[in-house]
Amino acid sequence: MHLEQAELQVIEASSGRQAIQYLQEYAIELVILDLMMDDGNGFEVLQYLRDANMESLVIVLSARREVQDKILTLGLGADDYVTKPFSPVELVARVQAQLRRHRPHSSFPTKILRLNKLVLDIDNYFLRYDGKSFSLTPVECRLLELFMQNPDRVLTKREIYKRVWNHENFDDNNLSVFISRLRSILEPTEGSPHYFHTIRGIGYKFSGDGQ
């Protein structure tokens, strides 16, 4: 009801099996996905989405607050994670923010951002680093883009959340999980270049040269 009041077209699936059927039949731009279902779970639907290389955005909606659940869903390619209970207004804001950020592929030149050894393909969500290419989710790509555009500058958590998620209500756990995901790429082992610096009680600083 809230989504339709925001002038969004909505298709509702009553089960995971029906959700997969709709994803096969319709061009779905964004999925709001509950993890708990009668005939399976949301992880299976999310895995299906990614195995089929579908570009639908995904906001996971769940009562499960454990950090491991967030790590798993974001690792499977979810773009946001909202825990119950939640404000319908906030959920609509998150949906609208994701849709505004979503850029369909086009024939226009790809936007590339370079910082020392890092090459970020913003339109195609790829990072080239140390001779390797890494596929990123749209949120990971926007987060890294923000850091690469502001090297050696302290960014507050609220500022990061507002500029990446495009709304004020920031989730500290969500942000920490996304930072951890990017760290696993850029700082995979002890002794690796140190790009992300935690500024306790404030936010993060990104070192452009990995120092």
From TrEMBL:
Regions recorded as binding DNA: 110-208
CDD domains: trans_reg_C
Any Gene Ontology biological process: regulation of DNA-templated transcription
GO CC, one annotated term: cytosol
SUPFAM superfamilies: CheY-like
Keyword field: DNA-binding, Phosphoprotein, Transcription, Transcription regulation, Two-component regulatory system
Source organism superkingdom: Bacteria
Domain OmpR/PhoB-type: 110-208
GO MF annotation list: phosphorelay response regulator activity; transcription cis-regulatory region binding
Modified residues (4-aspartylphosphate): 34
Domain Response regulatory as annotated: residue spans: 1-99
Pfam assignment, any one: Response_reg
Protein's name according to its UniProt entry: Response regulator transcription factor
Annotated source species: Cohnella terricola
